[in-house]
Amino acid sequence: MDFAELQALSRLPASREDLIDLFGNVVAADKFFSIQGCFCVIVLRKGEEVCISDASTRRLPYLEEQPLNKGAYGKVSRVVVAKGHFFDPKPVTEGFEYNVRDLEMARKDYEINNKNFPRAGQEEREIMDKILGGSLRSGRCENIVDNWGSLEIAPDTYSLFMPKAICDLRAYMTEHHALPPATSGAKAEFIACAAGLASGLAFLHGGMKTQEFEDMVCYHMDLKPDNVLIFHEGGRYVWKLSDFGMARVKIRRRGPGGYERERDFNSWFRRRWHQQQPADPSLSATVNRRAEGTYQPPESVSQERKMTTKSDVWSLGEDVARWARKWTFGN
């Protein structure tokens, strides 16, 4: 066995052919090959993508998994990652690159549409990583859900990891804060949180750049209470935009030509289910090719369906106005 072959065996998982060369025995090689996944636990990397070509040779790092919610293009679970299996190259707290205790986070799983899914090295993949993953060259916006990395398991699973929220805006308003705010301080907090969402939307519309420093504009296309997550940070509540599975992106090229064609995220993933009846009684029966319901602007159901950044602004205004009406006039 030459040096290159020995180097290939320096880390697991090993291929069956390399194991046969190592053991000199097919039976022993197959026995080890079948169980080596127990010793090859995946380590997630903050803000980075981990790609696995064969899930049977690797072990997932979760101690617990609990389904939380599902949408048209993905499902969300609460997971607990075992200590030592989450790598942060720039740790903010504790000073350790690997988590020193079990770590709770949220995981969103998409089913890959292999026909359209962009691969590593393609410009579309860079764009997807920026929006779905939140790895933004131009800085961090506190009103967009943080990126804790991603995991692609060939051939058809793509998972995003993020901090686990307290709840989404719908649950926050209907379960946790069903009664109107009673004090001026509580009302001011609500207004500040809503203003934070506007800042997040402004960042999507005008605060991002590609690796070549070209302007990138993202239309969320699905702004509704379910896609606003609530966190408690620094002694205050922070509302954050999430779920960019319906988003569209345009890049402004330098020189003549301006914007190039749109990139449509929902063509990269398979639709998990088709909504037959509105899941939320507040939603109308109108179903269009983008998101569904009351929170979409009028142009979403027009024949041309010309959606712009103004469409997102309309949806955000409807989100905020609906709860303001509820608190003012009741149900």
What does this structure look like?
By secondary structure, the chain is an alpha+beta fold. It folds into 2 domains: 48-163, 2-Layer Sandwich (Phosphorylase Kinase, domain 1); 167-272 and 285-329, no CATH class. It has helices spanning 3-8, 16-23, 26-35, 123-131, 169-176, 184-206, 309-329; strands at 44-45, 49-52, 62-70, 74-81, 86-87, 103-111, 150-153, 157-162, 167-168, 208-209, 215-219, 228-233, 236-241, 248-252, 263-264. The strands form 4 sheets. It has a 6-stranded mixed sheet with strand order 2-7-8-6-4-3, with no helix packed on it. Strand 3 (62-70) and strand 4 (74-81) form a beta hairpin. Helix 2 (16-23) crosses helix 3 (26-35) and helix 6 runs antiparallel to helix 7. The N and C termini lie far apart (75 Å). Residues 276-308 are annotated as: Disordered. InterPro entries: Kinase-like_dom_sf, Prot_kinase_dom, Ser/Thr_kinase_AS. One of its GO terms (molecular function) is ATP binding. This is Putative ankyrin repeat protein.
Q: What level of helicity do the residues show?
A: 25-40%
Mean pLDDT: 78
Count of DSSP H/I helices: 7
Task: Give the number of DSSP strands.
Answer: 15
Poorly predicted runs of 5 or more residues: 274-292
* Rg, alpha carbons: 23 Å
> How many separate structural domains?
2
Order of helices and strands: HHHEEEEEEHEEEHHEEEEEEH
C-alpha geometry: globular
β-sheet strand percentage: 15-25%
Distance linking N and C termini: 75 Å
Major sheet: arrangement of strands: 2-7-8-6-4-3
Largest sheet: 6 strands, mixed
Structural class by helix and strand composition: alpha+beta
